[in-house]
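Batch 3, record 17
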Amino acid sequence: MSADHHHHDHDHLHGHAHGHEGSELSPTALRVRALESLLVEKGYVDPAALDALVDTYEHKVGPRNGARVVARAWSDPGYLERLRTDATAAIAELGFAGRQGEHMVAVENTPATHNMVVCTLCSCYPWPVLGLPPVWYKSPPYRSRAVIDPRGVLSEFGVTLSEEVSISVWDSTAEVRYLVIPMRPDGTEGMTEEALAALVTRDSMIGTGLALSPDEARKEGLLQ
Amino acid sequence: MNGVHDMGGMQDFGPVAPEPDEPVFHADWERRAFALTLAVSAPGGWNLDMSRHARESLPPALYLSSSYYQIWLAGIERLLGEAGLVTADEIEAGRPSGPARPVARILRAEDVPATMAKGGPVDRPPQAAALFSPGDAVRARNINPQGHTRLPRYVRGHPGTIARVHGCHIFPDAHAHGLGERPQWVYSVRFSARDLWGEDAAPGDSVHVDLWEPYLDPA
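Prediction for the assembled complex:
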């Protein structure tokens, strides 16, 4: 086994080699760089396509898309109805579609039911409306416990629900992707769709959070 | 395959650790590993089910001790080797030692927006009527396939109710092994938390799991 290989294994065993960028690249970073140059040299990969993919998911697609869907659903009963009937088509009306969002279902929170989404087997997540998943969503603690201890998991996000509220967990084991429609907070009557969207956090659309009240959103500088 | 990737119901991984203001990527290599994974399936010719199977077939200790993009990296290294696009020596060296194989297609920068917007829908025309309808009582089969499956262990043998019919979709258990699409009906099946986890679970709580018809028996 080469020294490089040893370091690679070492890197794996300690995991989470984040923040090791700088003048010295981590063994994983070196391996990715070597693989990219190999694949480019062999003509299998267009490096500009890699740049375009990164740019798309780092800067263009993210949870603000989903927030617009939720704000529209809160504001427009006709839209909510279309979202219930065919979420893929209703979401595409706002221009969000494609990879990892080919088959969408919207699940609505009510005073009686709270919805929460997980992928216990890997990291399935609705990219067109939420972007790429956060690390915790892909990690063993969430994937393992969301289904057996959803209330315990919610408490780790600072969310406590009354015992009267039933929790419905959605395990994305197929190619169907779920978007939680959080409940519209009180005191938001007459707000514009744009202002409502500011209340919709990423976690509220996964179901590990609730939509912000206007006061909370102001405190966080999300709303004027 | 009863692998460590099938984590639903395990309890010893510790608390969830949300990261405030988390960036999309935590290092530049994550950006490249993510994009490489998406881009090489074009010349590689493999499908998403094969990619998932490659990742979940990693040695269990390696899977559990790797970050998610390290798992993706290991997955494409394996698939690239199996497809004969690169050799293990070339991966170690980071440069070609032989000519490239002709490939059907590569992903060009100008095609990225259209390719991602199109995605890869998996719904297919049904070959037969759906066996189940919403409200039907079913039981997840107690099966333990050696190959790829999307039937999590924690629901096997448990009773559930059909909540929704999603449509007729590519069957991953076949597709991951190059056996064709073999489309099957997919259902959202509602399992009561008490049926899955016992009396300690809250009485009204439930877990919905998307399951293909071959995973289900009538109950």
